[in-house]
Write a structure and sequence with these properties.
Length: about 50
Amino acid sequence: MKAVEDHPVEDMFGDEILSGDVYFELHSVVVLDKNIKRYLVEVQEVKCYKAQ
């Protein structure tokens, strides 16, 4: 993981990106790590399962 000084202001869901936050760039889309599951399910339509 690389530290970046000039980071985006917010992710695609409108959450502010603060110093120290981890975020992903996926084809120029910025997503905070706390929103990556939401992005995968809602935007990429990835199926998510919970094992019993």
